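BUG-282 | component: ligand-complex export | severity: low

The export step for 3-methyl-2-oxobutanoic acid jobs runs without errors, but we want the raw record kept on the ticket for reference. Input record follows.
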Amino acid sequence: MDKVTLPSFQEKKKRGEKITMLTAYDLPFARLIDEAGVDAVLVGDSLGMVALGYPTTVPVTMEEMIHHAKAVRRGVSRALLVGDMPFMSFNLSVKETVRNASRFLKEAGCDAVKVEGGQGSLDSLEAVQAILDAGIPVLGHLGLTPQTAGKTGGFRVQAKTAPAARKLLAAAEELESSGCFGIVLECVPSQVADLITRSVSIPTIGIGAGNRCDGQVLVTHDLLNLSGPFHPKFARAFARLDAAALKAVKGFRKAVEERSFPSREESYEMPPDEWERLRRSA
Ligand code: KIV
């Protein structure tokens, strides 16, 4: 399979082929996702909730994102690699924004960054423009934007009214005109996602946005049932690795406690003559 590039992302939309994207935060999952032929890997700031145990994505720092993005880079050779700009990494000044975005490319080897927001949020649009002007590809993110969920009414479906849907469409068109190569649409009604998908020429990647987007993204730990008890209805579990992992860990504990692990085959032995020498000299 050929390496995924920004143009190939766009070509998929033109050909009507679905685009796939999954999150990764470490080497083993990055390798699996790349090997499975998924088009893009997102080092999402969901890292904070999924892997670091924070209650929201707000505490995630640039250092944490870069640390994990570097590990993911080592496992991805084909997919497009996108780093997620964490909360307040693109809101303080243009200089700071561009410096942070460039770290994803220079230090972690990402191909692009993702920036949340844009709906009437001058900050995000300015940030997107500054990053693009610096020559760094940007994936926009509209609808439910977890970093500012407090401001937009919490973790709930966005753009449910006609005026809100029109505003979202305008924001998507603005991101398209600014030069973003795609837009993540999170938790919006499928009709609104469909309207936006048909109105912009860049790919839309949905999560909780119905199946008429140009592609779909999921948090990998959700699709493997590894994210704990909260399951939004769009997060289908394609496997139950939590149960498989629990069984394995319990199996280890039991085998150690009943002395069946490690077996002789799983242990190293001294050559018999050396053991004899040691025993005699002891
Ligand atoms: O951080 C993340 O994982 C995301 C996806 C849910 C799109 O932003």
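Assignee comment: Attached the raw record above. Residues 6-239 form a domain with the TIM Barrel fold (CATH 3.20.20.60).
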